[in-house]
Amino acid sequence: MNKFVITIGLLLLSNIAQATTEDQISFKSEQQKQLYLELTAELRCPKCQNQNIADSNAVVAKDMRVKTKQLLDEGQNKQQVIDYMINRYGQFAHYQPPFNVATSMLWLLPIGFILFAGFVQVKRSKSKQQVDEPTNLSDLDDELAQLLVSDSNNKIDTSASNNAKTEANVKDIK
Amino acid sequence: MTKKINFRFLPLVVFVLLLGFLLKGLFSDPSERDSALIGKSFPQFELPDLNSNNKMHTPETLLTEPVLVNVWGTWCTTCKYELPFLTKLANEYDVKIVGLYYDQNHAPEFGEYADIPTIRVEVKEMLARLGNPYQYNILDLDRSLSLDLGVTGAPESFLIDANGIVRMHHMGDVNERIWREKLAPVWNEISQ
After folding, report:
1. Least CA distance to B171: which residue of chain A?
2. Which parts of chain A are beta strand (E)?
3. Based on the structure, what is the number of domains in chain A?
4. CB contact at 8 A, B153 and A59
């Protein structure tokens, strides 16, 4: 048990040691450190498909981290560093795309979908209501009444012909 | 009634559109994107020759005529495959090719230094074996020019016209097909 705990402890320690050997960077201030962490999380490694430069071990990501630190040391602000990278690696290198014609779909499509879904919902609930409305029922009543009337007319007709028939029969008998 | 018919096919239309979109994504290459430098001038630099620390290269010496700048390194496997074809381009088509040597190991910030004499030996050996297309090689030890060029690795190639404007960028090896379809049309235009 003791051995197990020691082994796990050593494994954890070795991990920490490895993580600190490469990225020992001394910052001028807490603010600069914060800016550096924000930038390396927001800038995208152009070599690896979906990693930010803080996350990636690619040579180019390392170089971009070093450059980011260097530019911050020169006193550049966040936007200047982002622009520096975009000028070299394109918009791809930044995880927050700008709003333009090509990217507008990203924002407009979901909004459009919600609006359309709302429209359909309203439309459907309306057509349902119409079925339940009493005016419709009275329409039906009218139709039913008309049917009944025409039916009784038919009956009258047939009874009339029946009467004629009986009259004929009577004549025959006479 | 007519409205009902329109809505009935809507899910199908949406489905087909989505299918087309995803199908296109299946065959698109995510690493294929235009360089941010197309149409811009070649970045400023002052770097030594690979074979001599004293000989310096600048845009003034590099960009006197149309040139193909090839980013490469002996560590890069794909570069080995394009060396014979690049040599053929240099010899048969008179393409001026200059190498930008991209070293992976040099990182003074992390206490790692590349050994230049070793690089020279390796380069000499490899070029003797596979062909030497380069008029000369620029040593970009700290990869500063590579960063300015938006290089993400090797091999990469740039076509630069006589005015020093970057006209074409290609990631990956230059082979017969890539040259014919992508690079030759631009090269023919800028080398006239």
Report:
1. A47
2. none
3. 2
4. yes
Q: Residue A174: its pLDDT value, please?
A: 46
Per-block average pLDDT, block size 10, for chain B (192 residues)?
Answer: 65 92 86 85 96 93 94 94 95 95 88 91 96 96 94 94 94 94 94 86
B37 CA: distance to closest CA in chain A (Å) = 7
Which residue, A29, A63, A93, sits at the end of a domain? Answer: A93
CATH number for the domain that contains residue A10: 1.10.8.640
Per CATH, the architecture of B34-190 is what? Answer: 3-Layer(aba) Sandwich (3.40)
Are B96 and B68 in contact by the 8 Å Cβ rule? The answer is yes
- 121-150 in B: which are within 8 Å (CB) of A? 143, 146-150
Chain A residue with CA closest to B106: the answer is A59
- pLDDT tens across A51-77, in order? 999 999 899 999 999 999 999 999 999
Nearest CA in chain A to B29: A49
Of B150, B148, B164, B51, residue with least CA distance to B99: B51
Q: Is residue B71 within 8 Å of B157, Cβ to Cβ?
A: yes
Mutate to test the interface with A, among B38, B147, B148, B156 (most CBs of A within 10 A): B147
Q: What is the pLDDT of residue B72?
A: 96
Q: Which residue range forms the structural domain that includes residue A165?
A: 107-173
Question: Å from B149 to nearest chain A CA?
Answer: 6
